[in-house]
């Protein structure tokens, strides 16, 4: 099936290759705006666990267009002052031990001979690609965040098998995080400078959400735009008027929605962790039947506790762990 973006009226859109950092930051947003103006439809949020926060109401793409245009108004200010951080580079998208082949010999010890699983690789400016690989980072852990060498767990011999495994796992995560950062600082100073820049995370989130396809909500983009407005002086160095304007009612509504989404997503994560469901619904083969049974029973319990026919319909029609027709989101 051909994409609507290949129709004659949209053939003048820039699809790369991109020649500048500015094109990287803006092109996806321009394409999304062009698509939505021609073909955009109101949608429920794709992530069904978020729908209660939107009262199960269809969301208009016009709000997303407005926020994409807000994003485009600030992209020129997101380019780092150090031009080296805008240098285009290629980076492995999913670096972790299973994707690294190592040769071991008595003479040379361990030697990396191959990296594989490159299929989602992008060539982008350094400040966008930078960061600790997802499988190696340990953000949110106090010891890792302090960048101190993690101490070895004590009294492992006195712990139960489960406790010992948990302590060893935490130690391993902390150690990997620590050595990745310290080794990068020593061996790749430009990369280290990129992901320790105070604006690194903010720029990355703006780029990510400013180029995402319409999936029935714009809260993530709007939230990071509000943060950018608050940190505008730090982004620009001062002396540049901020083009982002949010009135008091917008800020109040967004704060209320953020609180609701945070509660919902936190509860969703707890439920998934209880039966071994990981990111994007992944589950170990040995845990699959247990996870299916857990979620079926949970749905029965929620339906039994529903106070109205409307609530039962919402549980039945928007259950996050059921199959879903995704055609409207493609």
TrEMBL record:
It comes from the Eukaryota. InterPro entries: Kinase-like_dom_sf, Mito_inheritance_9. GO terms for cellular component: mitochondrion. Residues 1-20 are annotated as: Disordered. SUPFAM superfamilies: Protein kinase-like (PK-like). PANTHER family: ALTERED INHERITANCE OF MITOCHONDRIA PROTEIN 9, MITOCHONDRIAL, AMINOGLYCOSIDE PHOSPHOTRANSFERASE DOMAIN-CONTAINING PROTEIN. This is Aminoglycoside phosphotransferase domain-containing protein. The lineage of its organism: Eukaryota, Fungi, Dikarya, Basidiomycota, Agaricomycotina.
């Amino acid at each position: 099936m051909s994409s609507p973006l290949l129709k004659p009226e949209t053939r003048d859109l820039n699809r790369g290759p991109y020649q500048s950092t500015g094109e990287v930051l803006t092109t996806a947003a321009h394409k999304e705006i062009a698509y939505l103006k021609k073909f955009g439809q109101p949608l429920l949020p794709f992530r069904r666990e978020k729908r209660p926060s939107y009262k199960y109401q269809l969301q208009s793409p016009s709000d997303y267009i407005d926020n994409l245009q807000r994003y485009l108004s600030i992209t020129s200010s997101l380019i780092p002052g150090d031009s080296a951080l805008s240098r285009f580079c290629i980076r492995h998208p999913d670096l972790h031990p299973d994707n690294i082949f190592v040769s071991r010999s008595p003479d040379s010890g361990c030697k990396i001979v191959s990296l594989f699983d490159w299929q989602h690789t992008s060539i982008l400016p350094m400040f966008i690609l930078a960061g600790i690989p997802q499988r190696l980072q340990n953000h949110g852990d106090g010891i890792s965040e302090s960048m101190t060498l993690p101490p070895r767990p004590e009294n492992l011999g006195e712990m139960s098998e489960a406790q010992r495994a948990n302590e060893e796992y935490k130690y391993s995560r902390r150690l990997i995080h620590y050595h990745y950062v310290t080794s990068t600082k020593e061996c790749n100073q430009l990369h280290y400078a990129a992901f320790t820049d105070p604006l690194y995370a903010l720029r990355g989130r703006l780029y990510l959400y400013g180029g995402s396809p319409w999936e029935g909500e714009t809260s993530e983009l709007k939230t990071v735009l509000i943060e950018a407005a608050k940190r505008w002086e730090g982004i620009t160095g001062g002396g540049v008027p901020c083009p982002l304007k949010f009135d008091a009612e917008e800020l109040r509504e967004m704060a209320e929605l953020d609180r609701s989404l945070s509660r919902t997503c936190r509860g969703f994560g707890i439920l998934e962790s209880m039966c071994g469901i990981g990111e994007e619904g992944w589950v170990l083969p040995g845990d699959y039947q247990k996870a299916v049974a857990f979620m079926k029973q949970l749905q029965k319990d929620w339906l039994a506790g529903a106070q109205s026919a409307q609530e039962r319909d919402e549980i039945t029609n928007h259950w996050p762990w059921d199959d879903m027709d995704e055609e409207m989101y493609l």
